[in-house]
Each structure stands twice: as C-alpha cells, then as structure tokens.
Amino acid sequence: MSNPFFKNHGPILVQDILKLLKLQIDSDKKNIELKDIKDLYIANNSDITFFHSKKYKEAAKNTKASFCITSESLKNELPSSCVPLIVENVLVSVSQITSMFYPDAINDDFDNSATNIDETIFKDKVNCGKNVLIGKNVSIGTNCKIGHNTIIEKNVSIGDNCSIGSNTIIRNSLISNNVKILDNCVVGKHGFGFFPNKIKNLRYPHIGVVIIEENCEIGCGSTIDRGSMSNTVIGKNTFLDNQIHIAHNVKIGENSIIAGQVGIAGSSIIGSNVRIGGQAGISGHINVGNNVEIGGGSGVIKNIPDNTKVMGYPAKNIREFLRDNK
Length: 326
Description:
The chain is mainly beta and 326 residues long. It has two domains: 12-105, 3-Layer(aba) Sandwich (Udp-n-acetylmuramoylalanyl-d-glutamate--2,6- Diaminopimelate Ligase, Chain: A, domain 1), CATH 3.40.1390; 115-324, UDP N-Acetylglucosamine Acyltransferase, domain 1.
C-alpha cells in the first residue's frame, strides 16, 4: 500500500515520460498509459518501476511492471515483458517521474487546515491537554489521550487506547490500537531524500506513510519518516527508546526493542525479536534477520543473518569481537 493521502495525477502517457527524460525508444508502446510508479515488488503491468542496484536483482527478474527506469549495466536482469528506460542517474529520473504522478508530495509545509481541538468533533471524545491542534482527514479512536501543544496534522488515523505525548507532531500516519507515542516526537514527515546538484539539490517526493502497529511505544524525541516509494513500518509490540531516528522505507518486525540514539538509515529491513543497543547505526538497504542482537555503539554495514549476535564497527560476530578486543 502506498500513501492513500496524496492524489495520483495519472495515468500518464509513456511518450510524456520519455519527453521528460529526453529519451527515444524503438517501441510501439509510446502511447500506453501508465497508472502509477511503484517499486519492483508491487508494480503491475500498468505501472512503471525502477531498478538501481544489484541488491534488487531477484525482485527485478520477477517484476510485473511494463517499464523500468534503470542503467545500462542492469537492464539485462529485467524480464522480456518489461521495457528498460536507460538513464544516467536512475534515482534522479525516478524523482522526476514521481513528481509527475504526485506533485503534491514534494513539499512538506505545515498544515494550514489544523484547528484547535475544541472546534472539532473530538472536543468531548479525546482527553487532551492545552493547545492541541487537529488537521483534516483525521480519525481518533476511543479512550485516547493527547498531551499539551501537540499537532495531529492532516491524514492521520489513530486507533483505540492510544496515548500521544506533548509537543509531538504526526501526519501521514496509520497508528493502530494501544500505541504510545511520547513527548517531542515527529512522525510521518518528509524523509531525507534528495540528490545533490551543482545548481540546486533535487528533493525526492515521499508518497508512503508511517504504519505503527498495535502495542508499540515510541520514545521521547524520536523521529519516524514516512516512506518514499513504499511505507515505513513499525511492527506490533516493538518498543523504541528515546531519541531514535527511523528513516524512510524502514521496516521493523514484531517484538523488537531498540535502545536510545539508534539510527536506522533508509530502506533497511529489521526482523522480529531483534535487540539493538544504544547508539548503534544501521546503514541503508541492510537486511537484519530475526532474533538478532546488536551491541551498543555498533555499526552495521552489511546484512546480518537470523539468530546472530554482533558488535563493533564494522559489526561482527560477538565471539570475534570479544576475541579481537581482549
């Protein structure tokens, strides 16, 4: 599921995409209409996708997309049913095309629709502090609490028995039952997605949402960015300590515990029953398996298999780390 909140301006003709990218192809498919841009996993034959790294080779081989933005070195990994569009910089081109489909997703300004909760249908429904603001397209379940100076901006769904702390901002998020989000958190804002340019840095539209499943707790001062192409997901019964940053597209499994000041870079996947010590860092596009323990202060720069304990920088098996640091 991509973001249900941003309007898709498709369908868009293939020839218009080619014009934007300044490409020519020998194909009779130029007049095909494409409905959306999606990742390799969920794209279908009415969509365009992208393929920029060998890490996604298996997904590329099985994609159902009709067109794929990719590089010369990767094009042969695509199935014959998918027409490659060869560009110099895949991600920059993806940003440009995503902006065609979702022009409203580029900027992330404050929500002008937010009004005082006393002027909304939630006045007598929610136990709240002072100066609470609520935006449009917001739903809040029963028995919820919201602290002082908190803003629930547009496009938020909050389940039953949830507690939202003070000085917190939430937007573009789907929050399940029995979730606690403590003070000073920012959830669902634009991720750190841009491409450096000599003239002007190019912002990447973020069209995903943040999904926080039931029985989770998000510690004070934590930031959870919404997804760029897919969603950012916190699995049920997962607890985050204070001052944690979860970047766009990160997926965290169930029953995991993450200590303070941990940073998880974009598009990394963390399994279930994972324990991460304080101040550890997880690089982008990393897969961490189930039942993994990562020691505090570690730097994870490659995939970690199931049932593993690691520590250090770069993170290595705990036995190796202890042996090397006697």
